[in-house]
Amino acid sequence: MGFSPCLVWKYIITLKKSISIRLFITCWLVYGCHFATNTVREIYPALSLADNGSFDVSAYQGLHPDIFEIPGRGSFINNNPGASILGAVPYFLARPVTDRLIDRVLQQREQARLAGVEPPTLDSPWPMAREFFRKSYERGLDIKFGLGAGLMQAGLMAPLSALCVVVMFRVLFSLTKCMRTALWLSVLYAFATPIFYRTAQLNQNLIVMHCAFFAWVLLWQPGATTQQPSKPWYLLAGLLSGWAVVCDYSGLIVPLVIGVYGLLHRRTLPESVRSSTDALRFVMGVVISGAVLMYYQWLCFGHPLYPAQHYMPAANFTDQGYQGLSLPQWDLLWATAFNARYGLFVAAPLLSLALFFPSWTAMRRIVGKLELRTILVFCAAFFIFCSANQYGRMQFNTGVRHIVPVIPFLYLLTAGTLLHGPRRLAITFGVAATMWSWCLAMYREVESGPYGVFDSIIAIFTQGVQFPWLVTLHRMSISLPGPLQYVLSPWFILTVLVMAIVLVWTVGRGPRKSHQTVV
Hints:
Helix content: 55-70%
Order of helices and strands: HHEEHHHHHHHHHHHHHHHHHH
Largest sheet: 2 strands, antiparallel
Shape: globular
Strand content: under 5%
C-alpha cells in the first residue's frame, strides 16, 4: 500500500481526538482527588440558587465575613455572581440525592443527640475554622456545605479546568505540529501551574481565566491556515468575555483586550471568513452577559450599575480609593509577582521562564507577533489592576488568586522557552515545577508557617502525601471502621488514582504507528 497524506492526516485527527479525551479524563480525575473542602463565599449564593432560585443568602448570615445584609432586601456576598450561577448547576442536578442524604444524616444526628452522644469537633489549628464548623454543625449545614463544595468542584471546576488543558493541547499541537510535544507541554500546563491549586474549590478568578483563554482561542483559531481558513466565533467569544465580568470586575480587562485583538486579527483574515457583522456579534455577546450582571445588581441592590462592593460595610482597605481600588502601588505589584505566600512566580516557578525575553523573538517564540503583543498587553493590564486592588494584600491566607487569569497567556511564552532550551534542562525543570505545584495543591497552607509557599514543600517531604479533603475528614472526631481507615488513606487513594490513569491511557489503544508525531 502506497503512502497517502490523506490517510496520515485522518489518523492524526483520530489520534488527536483520542488523546484529548484521555487527557480530559486524566485531569478530571487528578483535580477531583485534590478537592478542598473550603466553603468559599461563592458557594452560598450557589446553594441558595439551587435550593430557592434566589441570590439571598440570609439563611447563611453570620457564617462568612463576606456576607452582608441590606435591610429590606436580604443578605448577599460582596462579589459578582458569575461563579455562583455556574456552581449552582451541578448542585441543583444532584439535589434528588443530596436532599435525601442530608435528611438521613440529620435524623441520625437527632437520634444520637437524644442518646447523649457528644457532637464532633474539628481538630483544626485555626480558631475561625473550629468556630465555623461548630456553627455549621449546630445549624445542620455542615453536610450541605461539604456536599455542595464537592459537587461544585467535581461537577464544574475540575471538568472546566480539564477542558482548558485540552484546549491548550489543541493550541500547542497547532503551533508545534508535534503530538508528543503538545501532550507533555499540556501536562505541565495542567499540573505545574496554579491551575492545579485553584481548581480544588469554586473560584471566580480561575473561571475568569478560562473565559479569557477560551474567548481568545475562539477568535485566534490557531489551527487555521491560509489554504483552510476558519471563521472566528465572535458571538461565543463575546459571551465568554462578558461572563468574565459577571464573575469578577477584574474581568473588564478581558472584553477590552480580547475585543481589540479580534478587530486586529480580523484584518489578517481572507474575505471568505469575514463579515460586516463580526464586531457586532462580539459586542452582542458581551452585552448579553453584561445584562445578566446588571439584572443581578438591580435585583439584589436596587440599581443596575452599582456593584456589591458599593453597598458592603467598611472592611479592610475599603478606605483606600473606591472601596479598595486605588492607584497602582509598586509594593503590591511586586507582591503579586514574588510574595512568598501569593506571588505568581513563587507559586509557579515554571512561569518565570516567560520572563526570558530573548524567547519573545521571532526565531524562538511559538506565537505570532499580534498574539505576542496581545499576551503582553493582557498580562500587563492584569498586573496593573492587581497592583491597584488593595484586597490583593489579603491573599496571604488564600494563596495566589487575583493574578490567575494570566496563566495560559504566560504559559505560551513559557512553552517557547522550554522548546528552545536544552532538552534535559527543560525536562528537569518541568519535573521539579510539577512536584512544586503538587505539594502546594496537597498542603495548600501558605499562612501558618514562616515561609509561605515553601512550607508546603517542607510539609509534604516531612509528613508525606496528603489530600485536602482527607485532612479535613481526619480532623473531625469521627470514628471509622477498620477497613474504611485503610481505604481512606493517602497512599491507597494515590495508588487507585495511578491505576485509573494507567487504564485511561492503555484501554482501547490501537497499535502504534510511525506517523503519530509529525503532520
